[in-house]
Amino acid sequence: MLEDLKQEVYEANMKLPKLDLVTFTWGNVSAIDRDKGLFVIKPSGVPYEDMKPSDMVVVDLDGKVVEGDLNPSSDTPTHTYLYNHFKTIGGIVHTHSPWAVSFAAAKMDIPATSTTHADTFYGDVPCAPALTQKQIEEAYELNTGKVIVDEFNRRGIDPDAVPAVLVSQHGPFAWGPTADKAVYNAKVLEVSAEISYHTLQLTRDETHVPQYLLDKHYYRKHGKNAYYGQNNAKSKSHAEHE
Amino acid sequence: MLEDLKQEVYEANMKLPKLDLVTFTWGNVSAIDRDKGLFVIKPSGVPYEDMKPSDMVVVDLDGKVVEGDLNPSSDTPTHTYLYNHFKTIGGIVHTHSPWAVSFAAAKMDIPATSTTHADTFYGDVPCAPALTQKQIEEAYELNTGKVIVDEFNRRGIDPDAVPAVLVSQHGPFAWGPTADKAVYNAKVLEVSAEISYHTLQLTRDETHVPQYLLDKHYYRKHGKNAYYGQNNAKSKSHAEHE
Amino acid sequence: MLEDLKQEVYEANMKLPKLDLVTFTWGNVSAIDRDKGLFVIKPSGVPYEDMKPSDMVVVDLDGKVVEGDLNPSSDTPTHTYLYNHFKTIGGIVHTHSPWAVSFAAAKMDIPATSTTHADTFYGDVPCAPALTQKQIEEAYELNTGKVIVDEFNRRGIDPDAVPAVLVSQHGPFAWGPTADKAVYNAKVLEVSAEISYHTLQLTRDETHVPQYLLDKHYYRKHGKNAYYGQNNAKSKSHAEHE
Amino acid sequence: MLEDLKQEVYEANMKLPKLDLVTFTWGNVSAIDRDKGLFVIKPSGVPYEDMKPSDMVVVDLDGKVVEGDLNPSSDTPTHTYLYNHFKTIGGIVHTHSPWAVSFAAAKMDIPATSTTHADTFYGDVPCAPALTQKQIEEAYELNTGKVIVDEFNRRGIDPDAVPAVLVSQHGPFAWGPTADKAVYNAKVLEVSAEISYHTLQLTRDETHVPQYLLDKHYYRKHGKNAYYGQNNAKSKSHAEHE
């Protein structure tokens, strides 16, 4: 069942340690088959070196396991909620990458201070508020999805234009059209957090890039006037700057 | 004698350089057989690349060498003291990992500012006071154990719930049910120190996570209502977040 | 056509990930044949692991592709402008290396605070102003070259003496007599940015090195009285300090 | 001539990139045969991957090359001066390791804030003043040695007890009884600088360790009452903490 998607999700999970985004097993990736209404997610707490494509768990959009011998990631309700409310996304990744977590712990957005950020994120990456005691005790992982979606709605942010978020006191989630692209976005998020941290220590001047620079970098790569890359398969994956 | 435990302690020691927790030989791990009242510890000052399982030294709870050709770690009296006073722990690790040492040099607790910390440590990791001149001159390594135990008693902290400490001007100790789990905790401590350092530079706002978030993350993985992982061997080791 | 130069440019591009100067495909290197008035540049958005010397694109000094099946780097107009105005340079590199980008985002020069900097850069590395809305919308990449050249002219800096620049809100460009030397300079820039960042956090005292130290280190390695290295092929490449 | 010493110096040089202490060729190590009054030093500007033991250059205590086809390191006069004035040292290393250079650029001592530092350095590592214009123009490298020796004399520091120094605006030098031990000390210096940097950012409280802690850690490993290690060959090299 969904063997190709399992392979894809497996490979995307295995990229996390390779890209220095996880310590131990602290990350998970999923991807969805929108036609079938099913998504594939990493099992809970299995070390990367032991994981196989067949360990991936298939879950439906009510969060129920449809296939798989192992428990799915304990963050599965967060993934379910995001797939149900961000209708265009195809893959989700959660990590505890340390620069992004530092901003989440400080309850700060990651400001768009350079083109490295703007090539992927059309504006600041928002930091959603911490869950309340009630939200935590009632349904922790599901409400983690809820505070994310609520924050995007409240600020009027398009999740395709800003494909990542921080949750206060917790850490980053990123997404994209595929699992692979979600992992790519999670790495850009970490690099952008590292750069913005240092920028904020260097100066107290305003460092947000202006709207017209955001526009330029976003539309250089998105939409009908995009002119970056080869417009063919060779450059499709991970070809953001050069 | 205790060949399995020697192998376990050897392997846990060899993880320290692999996890970037030590420079040169600056770390040591031990583990105890509570039934026999004996523990196994790394020899003093032997480079990791030359170390063999049979080099491990067997020590009793009076700190006397029972078996082994090499001198045990010079920190052996600290380990002895901790095993005698923290009755439930099975393994201990000491390193000079740089983020944790930076907090120890600043004589500051590592604050619980995110779930990365809270998944392993049920509250701040305390920084025990520096040893007095008398404590240093009388019995330095033994008194290092003593200031740790005294600080946990003074603050009423359960060493199973917060399995690590800093000693002011010196560095971190971590422990756990096994040598392997102690090393895991030492790594989480280092990552948590790195994150909290950056958090403290980003903001002067209060960043401690609330008690109910500590409760949620601790009891998600500990005690009878835990629901994280696979509840089987495959996920037992190092499966803290996903 | 220009097979040797393609090989050289290919190898210089492949050094970028090896020297930790790029994430994903975020860098590009070119080199020029001044006699023919043609330069060779990396194709746009091709992952390093898939790239071959024959993928390199040949471009003339009007920025027109002369040979190659792939699109050249989208930053080609910047390279073209720099080759046309900095007549002595033979190779150019652009990266998003994070320490240099942090200074660019803060719109700050990288100050010459130590001999590590002064051995390669005869003074501060300037940060050129951010492009205006008009400059971005009219001809973004070409105007990136223009703000660089204008800033060197305005300050009266010799591009051979200070072979690198930051562009505000964007990142670093470096150059040199060859592609290989340009990559070398890009790495020194990153190390120098890292050092100066930490220096600026340690103290608010003046930390610029004096003019006579700049003179000493520059003329120790450049011009007729240079006495560094072996004056033979073995030490020619990358022999800046010892 | 001095083939064993050449091998030793070669191996010590090759450790610099392995220990992350150098970028490109930016480091040099030498060692002296006190009986013959000759020292062996790395050639100038030769990449590590091309270097052979036979490339090492033999120099006398007047700084004259006695054997070798290549130019010795351009820092040779600094080494000569140090061997002539610090009579007990057997090996010297110079690097541009970035944490140490950051303190040198800030013209600050590296404070002894933890036992990681105190196990190797019996007090702060001093930052010698920047060379004057006259000192630079007359005899730059020789006067670099002179400001080091003068600073140790002025402060009354024993170079065996504090085997390293920073030179303002330049960087670190370390030494020891052998080339290998000098490289060890250079690595401890870098780690200690990293820790002290972070300590100084965490707190404005006094963080120097007290004299009695310096005494304890120094005499635990030095002199007739030392009790660290195995007192045999196996633990002789690099066995400072455990």
Quick structural gist:
The structure is a homotetramer of 242-residue chains. Chain A contains eight helices and eight strands.
Question: Can you identify the CATH class of chain A?
Answer: Alpha Beta
DSSP strand (E) fraction of chain A? Answer: 5-15%
Task: Characterize the largest beta sheet of chain A: strand count, sense, and whether it forms a barrel.
Answer: 8 strands, mixed
CATH topology of chain A: the name is L-fuculose-1-phosphate Aldolase
Oligomer description: homotetramer
Order of helices and strands of chain A: HEEEEHEHHEHEEHHH
CATH superfamily of chain A: Class II aldolase/adducin N-terminal domain
Find the count of extended strands of chain A (DSSP E, 2+ residues): 8
Notes on the structure:
The structure is a homotetramer of 242-residue chains. Chain A is α+β, with helices and mostly antiparallel strands. Chain A has a single domain (3-236), classed as Class II aldolase/adducin N-terminal domain (L-fuculose-1-phosphate Aldolase, 3-Layer(aba) Sandwich), CATH 3.40.225.10. Chain A is 41% helix and 14% strand. Chain A has helices at 3-18, 76-85, 98-105, 115-118, 133-155, 179-202, 211-221, 233-236, and strands at residues 27-33, 38-41, 57-60, 65-67, 91-95, 127-128, 164-167, 171-176. In chain A, helix 2 runs parallel beside helix 5 (133-155) and helix 3 crosses helix 6 (179-202). The N and C termini of chain A lie far apart (38 Å). The model of chain A is unreliable at 232-240 (pLDDT under 50). At the B-D interface, helix 3, helix 5 and helix 6 of B face helix 6 and helix 7 of D.
